[in-house]
Amino acid sequence: MNNFLKSEVITQMINEQMKGKEKLMGLASDMGNLPNGVQAGDTFTMIKVAHLGEMVDLVKGQTIALEDLQTTKSSEVIEHKAKGFQLYDIERETTIGGKSILDKKIADMADIRVRAIEKSLGEKLAKAPLKYACSEADTLLAREINTALQTAFGDAQDTDEFAGIVVNSRVATGFYAMPEFVKADYTFTKDGNGVVRGGVIGTFRGIPVIMSDVTTYDTAKSECVTFIIKKGALGYKKVAGEVEVARNASKKCDEVYDDLMFVTGVIDDTGVVVVRKTIA
Question: DSSP label at 197?
Answer without folding.
Answer: B
